[in-house]
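help with this.
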Amino acid sequence: MDEAVRILRGGGLVAAHTETVYGLCGDATNGEAVAGIFEAKGRPSFNPLICHVASLEMAGRIAVLSPEALILAERFWPGPLTLVLPMRPEASLHPLVTAGLPTVAVRVPRGPLRELADRMDRPIAAPSANRSGRISPTTAEHVLRTLDSRIALVLDGGATSHGLESAIVGFGPEGPVLLRPGPIEVEKLSAVLGCEIRGRVSNAVLNAPGQMTSHYAPHGAVRLDAERPQSDECWIGFGPDPVEAAACASATNLSPRGDLREAAANLFAALNRFDDPDIPRIAVASIPHVGLGHAINDRLRRAAADR
């Protein structure tokens, strides 16, 4: 456990046992650690990650719990229930954790992952500890089957007790919505709340994040795979960049050394920097379509889509 905390504080990744499945853990406030999670999983896009916290009090530091959410949290935490809640403005989460959305998914788990969050005194981002698209891991051996050499350490807690990812409940204008079924039956959740938790429908307000064609879009038009900016464009570069800020309206670089993990960690900050009604046009350098580059380009395409 001491070694796991040391690795996490240094921006590294570990896998840890929970009651549901093993989680692939990184510091939720560290952009490069979070980008490393996507890289290790081979995740196709920057979907939101669940923030695991040690207590209800820690959850309250990063999210706003409605009376309904508080009832469920007090009844089922620690346990296999994730709540999607409005994120507090002062939360120090890196934007990659929430995929740039104003909500955050929060859970208090059982097992070593909860102890990690307690000892770190900060949220731990942790999707299932397996390569994207592979079977979720319920033993340490399952983790090593797809992530060996991609992470620094596995905290072996034996087989998980549920073997199924947590249930996810969100809260919309018409009440609570089951976004993902899990080990806690929806009937039990509804009984505790005293009202029906609806199943998710295609036109619900709580849409699946990252699926809209136009998403993560700044005010200005975005031009992709640009060789250099026009004089009236802001510039988002990548790699050794000959473009000087004086040659355009303003400039930033996702990673001067051409590191895709660093670029992923800086992506949302760069888009936010130029998200201004007074900035009409943004040019973005070409990003390689390899590894994390696929996810970066996915988000950039959505930012550039017609609105």
